[in-house]
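Work Package 3 (structural annotation) set out to generate three-dimensional models for the target panel prioritized at the project kickoff. During this period the team completed the workflow that converts sequence records into discrete structure tokens, so that structures can be stored uniformly alongside our sequence database. As a representative example, we reproduce one entry of 347 residues exactly as it appears in the project archive.
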Amino acid sequence: MSERSPAHVDFPDRLQPIEIIDMHTGGEPLRIIRHGYPVITGDNILAKRRYVRDHLDHLRRFLMFEPRGHADMYGALLVEPTLPDADLAVLFLHNEGYSTMCGHAIIALGRYAVDYELVPVIEPVTQVAIECPCGLVRAEVEVINGISGKVTFLSVPSFVTGCDYTLTLPDGTPFKTDIAYGGAFYAMLDAGQFGMEIGTTAVRKLVGLASTVCAAINASIPIRHPDHDDLGFLYGAILTDGRDEFSTEPTRNICIFADQQVDRSPTGSGVSARLALQHAKGQIKAGQTRDFESVTGAIFKGSIGDVTRCGPFPAIIARVGGMAHYCGESRLWLDQGDLVGQGFQIR
């Protein structure tokens, strides 16, 4: 069980709760934190991310961990934008800390921004500019007769930093992996080289494999972003079915990130990274749309929106589309004397 928060920090109470709306994208949860957080300072989004990490992390555990959340809960904390073109800004929360990009959250936040009139609503497509720690992400929300629907986003530049690394697991098993960035850095590798398939029956084994793969990479391959040191870390591993050559059939993958957290969706930043890798290897061209499938059967559609550069790396602007749904809304607080209710994890 994780350690309880220090006694001196403040938690929401019944008179001043934290208000949330829960959504999911392809089964992957998103807890949108609407009201009740303390003031967050910082001149830019990365400074705000550092501030909540250093001063308000007890609230992340309160919202993401049990008894209100679970080991795979994911959150979106709305903050004041610092970029002039941004309609809203967001910090992403999970079981380990604060990620730099989250595509499934962007898809949900696009609908949320339209439905709660955070932006002027225009039919048939409403534009929503969302400031993320990785940069500005632009979402396009389909709106028909006032009802929001599918969301497609244009991500930050996605690129490949290395291909076909050959490494070894602790048991001596060799494996090959690529490293790609889609708003966060991922190890990208074919699960077939381990004799494994992408499916719900193998999730525990896939999680264990991803953890050992990430440990091997962190021990031998430096991860750096050309623009910001805060973005230079390996976020997780994306294990695929190996079907990277362009096809009209879906290709399946699973993303394991943070502290062995399993993404139920195809992973928006992961699809961006996969598209960058496929483009770098000549497996997808502009104008082609590929379906990416998760272990829940959810589909994200991905394509190359544009080509660009990020520092020394050739890069793409990925277009990724999917659908999010609402689950409900809640007011959360800590009952007096409830130490366990501050947040805990069993695994």
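The CA atoms of residues 194 and 209 lie 9 Å apart.
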